[in-house]
Amino acid sequence: MNEKVIMSGNEAIARGAYEAGVGFASAYPGTPSTEILENMPQYKDIDSRWANNEKVALEMACGAQAGGLRTLTCMKHVGLNVAADPLMTIAYIGTNGGMLVVTADDPGMHSSQNEQDNRYYSKLGKLIMLEPSDSQECKDFVKLGYELSEKYDLVVLLRVTTRVCHSKSIVTLEEPLPKQVKKYVTNVQKRAMLPAMAKVRHVVVEEQLAKVEEYANNCPINKAEYNDTKVGIITSGISYQHAKEVFGDTVSYLKLGLTNPMPAKLISEFCEKCDTINVIEEGEPFIETAVKALGYKCTGKDKITIQGELTAAIVQTSLTDKPLEEGYTVDIKAADRPPVLCAGCPHRGFFYSFTKFRDKVVALGDIGCYGLGVQTPFFGEEMCVCMGGGFSTTIGMAEALKAQGDSRKPMGFLGDSTFFHSGLTSLIDAVHVNSDVILCLLDNSITGMTGHQQNSGTEVNLMGKPVHRIDVVDMVMATGIDPERVHIVDPINQKEMDAALKYSIENEGLQVIVTRYPCALLKSVIKARGKKHCEIDADKCVGCKMCMKVACPSLAFKDGKAYIADVANCTGCGLCMQNCKVGAIKVVE
Amino acid sequence: MTKNVILVGVGGQGTILTTKVLSKGLVEMGYDVKMSEIHGMSQRGGTVVTQLRYGEKVYAPNIGDHEADMIVSFEKMEALRALPYLKKGGAMITDDREILSMPVLTGEQEYPEDCLDVLAKTVGNFTLVKAGEKAEELGNVKAQNICLLGALVTKLGIADKVDWKRIISETVPAKVVDVNLKAYEAGCAMA
Question: Which one of A50, A157, A197, A241 has the fewest CB atoms closer than 10 angstroms to its CB?
Fold first, then answer.
């Protein structure tokens, strides 16, 4: 052992769980956290599973840790909002087996709808918080986290950010512990959180946190590096790496790995020794506020932006007069290259059909690949909030439109995984009162955007075992909705798709459209397709550009003719062909 | 001295695999290596940027404006987009592949057809490597990435420091080892 390998932060977190003898891991996928659980199945001793949402994932883990297993639960930052309800109370229950919750924040919003700083959850939830700054620390902090969680009977929040999750650096592997199992002993006073018990537990939690603060003041992951003490920098997580990159050994550092409870004594010592203090942190003034509360002056968000992701260059220009290196400039500009719906994507059929009814609906979207429909040329989304919001927001919008005599019908859409996540409860509300809305369930048989994770609609689970597949249509019908209000269509087939939308607009009350067509990137779909693709007969093509309206990345137009520019990725779905009035496009095998 | 390398391309071109081979080799050479790749939405046909830093001790995993010593681009317009990363005196390797983006396909924006000429005139240390064309000639267009890797390690002066062919063989799928080794050799020769 002690082999050195290069690992992403996410891979290292998974490895850390394995080395710590974790027995149960659960998550709902979400960038940048997804690869943690995707890397789990290689560790056969860990029962790893995708849950339908983050709340369910956390509650399953709570059961497992109360029962005596070490557990890992992972989610993106906004996922923790979904799981916040159980988390706040699990903190009172404490642990039997160690419990570690990973929040993967996304400063810079590489793939998210906001850049909330989840460090605040550690205070709100009374959690021990650890902030690793590279892959080695990801692994080390996970292992330490289980020791702390069990020793202090508290839940540990491992807070990472996109740049930690998705950066690779060298990690030294160690031997794993055997699976840790603690005996389950009934303890109603500790675990049944009704007011009488919770009042007692809150006292215990505060006492335990005070003990952790003592530890935090004198622990291996909160450490001062003294160089010249004219300038002292207090930092945590990835910001430490940026600070070191800029200042090297010319200043002193207080690198905090355990940031809740905040090590007040250690911070005070450091501030006393240094002439001036700069806090370098991404996002909110979390450390800065703690330093100021102790009565020390420091720079913080007055110098370093609260927006986006930090780089060494931002730290350098914010805190020093040293200019950046010189670069090159040119007069020409690259065209934008936003991510697009793939060739053969079923959502393209849905959005293209939508463009034919644009004036009659208000389209409200959700989180997933179909979010890309917001762009040119579909402009198929007027609002996007959160998982499940695509359905629920329509219910309120319908009332608001009616109140102002706007005859348009709200049309919400979300995917199969999002439906299982939280769309189902929204659907039940709409069915219950027969809301005057169109709800479109875009079933592509997989969790798409995050890269094909299994969900309740798939036939195997994360561990590759066969499981009971739950059909989204069965779930819709189980609400008792009038079957005439449910329209199951092939979204690529524009006759079917258009008819369903037209009917849903023209008929009052709730209409549910389920589009069924698998993601074009599924291995089984690629295999079944073989060499099937479209061909355009240049002699027949009249250059009307009707095929280009479907905005397929495989299609291009040059010298007055459309052509298949990317034959390798054209799936021969035939959406473009349906728009060709002169029969120039055909599907060939 | 830390070296900063940026690989850019379009989702699906294999930039990430290239960086994987490169980082394995650099680790074998005894360097500290950090590599940063953002995945998520950008996979869906968008611009993909992978950043790699190596040296005795590397702290930050990402590379800012004017900080790159070397840019390798798998598509010519992406080379233009990545130019702000390059420091004065830095080197650029690019393929002449042209992949039209959606705003170009819909006619809302123009593809900068003259970008190779402009880049060649602006960047002193500029190398055009027709890796995609070579890979097609060798029978598998996907070997474009390993062809560019050959050009990259040659330009970095590390082609003979480790057995890159062995690392390629260990990293790419077994079925395509031969074509990738040929592509690697071709890339070395084109640098």
Answer: A197
